[in-house]
Predict the 3D structure of the following.
Amino acid sequence: MAGLKIAVFASGQGSNFQALADAVQAGRLDVTIELLVCDKPQAPVVGRAERAGIDTWVFKPKDYPSREAYETEILAELERRGIELIVLAGYMRIITPVLVEPYYGRMINIHPALLPSFPGVNGIGQALDYGVKVTGVTVHYVDGGMDSGPIIAQRVVEVADSDTEETLAPRIHAAEQALLPGVVQQIAQGKVKLDGRKVMITG
Ligand code: GRF
């Protein structure tokens, strides 16, 4: 389906990428996934993109002198393709102003905790170690900080006393895959308005 042109950035399994690709395939998302950007050539997400017929831009960070150097190449590719929204779906790298500035308000991330609690790596394990009774997932705009941008949507996941990372992670991932495609669709429909730190969903 035509519609908003998006690029998905991912580093690993790609279950969130797959949820988006499946939603497009099922006609539930008015977007075109133009490109997968991946920093790990061996990551399973690359095969998922190939099987879905989606172009990939795969790179090795150590082939570049700096983050800014590879992001400059990525930016040129995104602009060449007219990408209107970047979705970070398990992209495990810091984003610099090279991408944040031109795409501010047009770049979102999914995080496996209820921000602003437990930003950074291993949000699931951080929440468990802290002993919270509820955790969840957050979709937010990307700013220059670590998982600190304006929050678009969140979903709560209850933590059982017996939970371990192995038992909690599947419920977090299910919540992510349920939340992310819907948020992308709301953005594609022009229903998401950013006003300072506040995000409003209309209609
Ligand atoms: C997700 O939990 C995401 O929130 C986190 O990394 C994980 C990626 O999972 N940032 P996948 O690659 O989409 O399966």
User: Anything to note?
Assistant: The beta strands are 4-9, 31-38, 55-58, 85-88, 107-111, 134-141, 151-158, 192-195, 198-201. The radius of gyration is 16 Å. DSSP finds six helices and nine strands in the chain. The mean pLDDT is 97.
